[in-house]
Write a sequence for this structure.
């Protein structure tokens, strides 16, 4: 059960069914209450009509004995001001809800020969002192109650309407007339039965449709899941998940997944190439150093100490470059220090021969050591390719600190101006002139520039060589 509810399709179906069920119950209750209210209003109207008809007959002077009270379905009671039942429906056996349970009229104390003398107890004009009605007037106000009655052995529920009437010679009389609620009860029961039968069927339809629609909507997601599982099992990052021919969230998910796979494939390929190139670059100095040491062990007089030192320095430099690249790839953030880029450029230029410097005081933020590494790499690269001169300048441009390193060599072809910043990339001409470079200096320089919020680009220098331009944001 838990596994089933763990499915998005099952949860969506259950949620939709519950929402529809609550809505249907609320709507069903509202319909039943509205139906009952309307039918009750109809019964009230019918009871009031009967009561007013009897009251009209009384107001017209009709004696009690001549009132039309022989209806087997509508119980009627006429009560005088003293609460005595003076007239009632023939066959009335029991009644409740009208305020009096009497079912047989009670004769008045002064009645002798007819109903016309019954009003003598109320005074000469038959007026009830508490009544605000004129003789022969029927009250506009009606009160309603619920109750039951038995007529000729048939019991039923009724709605009773009470109407007051001022009758000359008889005083204030109250007419209670009832209307059966059988039709209302039957209609409500029928509607309730229909709802109890229809609601489960409707909920079943909603659940089934939601299940099918959700299954259809999630089918591409299942395809994406299967393909991702296959990619994980095969480790083939060249594969891609299917993209549905829609413009919804699932299609965007598939496209984003493919973009992630492409980025992952590029990263893994780059990592493999990096490891292969690093192994290749390390193999040469290690092999050379081993050869020299083996020769020196066998023939000490032939040991090339300067060569061994050179190979060791080369290994040390390559290991340092690889370590820095690993730290940069791991997302190491630069420090939050401040330093003068012009002063740092002067220090780096002073360590190398043949470099002319023109700087000004410009403060930047970040890691002074990493930026110094960038300047050193740019200067070393320029000196390897320059014919006679290398120039360095530092200036301020708006919110940027700009450092330029130019040489008078052959420059960098336009098509290779981005390739030179890739790792282990050395142009053919550089490879023939460079005895120690591994193709990591410019790659490190650009990575450090980017992590400091800056840029590193190359273009033609005024003297005809290459001009590398480093831009870093000024310190706050």
């Amino acid at each position: 059960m838990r596994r089933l509810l763990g499915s998005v399709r099952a949860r969506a179906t259950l949620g939709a069914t519950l929402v529809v069920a609550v809505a249907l119950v609320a709507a069903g209750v509202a319909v039943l209450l509205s139906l009952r209210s309307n039918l009750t209003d109809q019964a009230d109207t019918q009871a009031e009509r009967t009561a007013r008809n009897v009251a009209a007959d009384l107001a017209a002077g009709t004696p009690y004995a001549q009132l039309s009270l022989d209806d087997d379905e509508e119980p009627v009671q006429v009560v005088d001001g003293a609460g005595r039942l003076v007239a009632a429906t023939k066959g009335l056996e029991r009644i409740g809800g009208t305020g009096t349970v009497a079912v047989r009229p009670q004769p008045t104390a002064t009645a002798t020969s007819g109903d016309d003398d019954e009003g003598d107890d109320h005074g000469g004009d038959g007026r009830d002192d508490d009544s605000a009605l004129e003789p022969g007037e029927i009250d506009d106000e009606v009160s309603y109650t619920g109750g039951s009655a038995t007529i000729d052995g048939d019991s039923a529920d009724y709605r009773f309407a009470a109407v007051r009437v001022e009758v000359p010679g008889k005083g204030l009389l109250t007419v209670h007339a009832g209307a059966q609620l059988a039709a209302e009860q039957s209609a409500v029961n029928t509607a309730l039965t229909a709802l109890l039968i229809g609601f489960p069927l409707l909920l079943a339809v909603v659940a089934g449709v939601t299940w099918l629609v959700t299954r259809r909507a999630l089918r591409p997601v299942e395809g994406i899941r299967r393909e991702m599982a296959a990619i994980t099992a095969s480790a083939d990052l060249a594969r891609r998940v299917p993209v549905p021919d829609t413009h919804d969230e699932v299609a965007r998910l598939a496209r984003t997944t493919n973009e992630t796979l492409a980025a992952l494939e590029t990263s893994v390929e780059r990592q493999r190439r990096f490891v292969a190139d690093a192994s290749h670059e390390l193999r040469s100095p290690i092999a050379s150093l081993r050869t020299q040491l083996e020769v020196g062990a066998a023939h000490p007089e032939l040991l090339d100490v300067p060569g061994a030192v050179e190979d060791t320095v080369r290994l040390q430099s390559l290991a340092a470059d690889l370590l820095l690249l690993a730290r940069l790839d791991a997302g190491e953030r630069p420090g939050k220090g401040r330093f003068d880029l012009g002063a740092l450029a002067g220090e780096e230029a002073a360590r190398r021969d043949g470099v002319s410097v023109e700087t000004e005081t410009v403060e930047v933020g970040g890691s002074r050591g990493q930026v110094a590494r960038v300047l050193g790499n740019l200067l070393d690269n320029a000196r390897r390719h320059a014919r006679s001169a290398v120039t360095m300048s530092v200036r301020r441009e708006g919110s940027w600190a700009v450092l330029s390193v130019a040489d008078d060599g052959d420059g960098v072809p336009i098509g290779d101006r981005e390739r030179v910043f890739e790792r282990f990339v050395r142009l053919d001409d550089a490879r023939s002139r460079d005895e120690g470079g591994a193709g990591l200096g410019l790659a490190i320089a650009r990575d450090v520039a980017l992590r400091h919020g800056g840029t590193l680009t190359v273009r033609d220098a005024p003297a005809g060589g290459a001009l590398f331009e480093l831009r870093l944001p000024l310190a706050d």
Summary: The radius of gyration is 53 Å. Residues 338 and 365 are 4 Å apart (CA to CA). Residues 109-129, 429-436 have pLDDT under 50 and may be disordered. The chain has nine helices and 13 strands.
